[in-house]
Input
Amino acid sequence: MLCQIERVWRYAEKHGRILAVDARRGSLKNSFSSYFSTEAKDVFLHPGKALLRHFDSLEAYPRCLSRRISQHAEKGAAVLNCGSVVADSDTGQLLTFDRSRAYREALLVHHACGGGDVGLSCLQRLKLLPDVARELARPLAALGEDYDAVHIRNTDVGTDYLPFFRRIFPELRGRKVLICSDDWACREAARKFFVESQVLMITDIPDTGGRPLHHYAGQDAYVKNLSMLTDLFALARARRLFVTQVTDARGLLYYPKGSLSGFSRLAQGLHAHPEIVDGLFASLPKDCIVPRPCQKEWTSRSIA
Output
């Protein structure tokens, strides 16, 4: 989601357009403005009903959304197509535009998924809302600065995590180890496996039966997203970060075997660029969040 926002944000800057972000139809299932703010002008992190009604008066590209964008935003009348691009269910038209050219239409719509590394640039433009920053800071501060962290994605993207555990077991012996995963069973397996480490888990997740958390309707979206952000920043502040590669993309074409999940990739990027995390928490005093570990001892490893 961050990657898609950043790509369109760059286009808006280049062509002098206003950017409106509606994250309700994405994995966040909530308004982006419930968590983040930006000082950028001409950027709306949540288009309210009045703005959507205004959009309905505009000629749009793709043309199938002209004068009915609020209907798409509210009802999500679309289906996934081609692995990462979304298509309108009524017309089959792909809901995106060519970012290499200019358009005469007043409203351009981009609705897609798929990752990359530009999401880090998006986070550099943002700050956490003060209340959100304070909520996240408490569990992060409780961790301290001397712990290692492991992330395993194992729902809609599969990971062969037991061989991964065996490979990293010797390196984690005697250490405080934070386990973060979207899979309840994987977390429980880690708790039992790392018997010579102090296993930590700072968020609670439900047993979804293997369904991804971002598609699980049995938990409040705001609470779920705060847990997700807590895990993300805790991974980023670890002394050593271990992530594992995808072994089964389970039909998601933008996750080839051997790649990293988007969450692991983002955690690695934040781990390598602690100044981005500092900027996100800029509304808080510096002593209110987990301090950076000694830089020379920081490592991040991806293990097959």
User: Anything to note?
Assistant: The mean pLDDT is 87. The longest strand covers residues 176-181. The CA atoms of residues 243 and 302 lie 5 Å apart.
